[in-house]
User: What shape does this take?
Amino acid sequence: MYKKFPHYLLATTLALLSTSVFAAADCKVYPKEEWASEDTLKEALEAEGYTIKKFKVDGNCYEIYGRSKDGKKVEIYFDMKTLAIVKAIGLKD
Assistant: This one.
């Protein structure tokens, strides 16, 4: 179903991390049968060098807490259908 994870979106978004920690991510609503596989997202992130500490469904978003390949803490929200990044936050260690 899902062809290829948009790696350039992840790199671009993480380069421009939001400083707004408390604002909720605004993800589009899709029927569950249209959601991309959680495993697809996890595998793509791990292939990019991310370590996932926590993966969850948050409202209408997939959300991960973990570390970037540089070892920095991140919180990232993804669109459940396209797996595009909706919001990314760099967290202080």
Observations:
- The chain has two helices and four strands.
- The mean pLDDT is 83.
- Residues 7-91 form a domain with the Nuclear Transport Factor 2; Chain: A, fold (CATH 3.10.450).
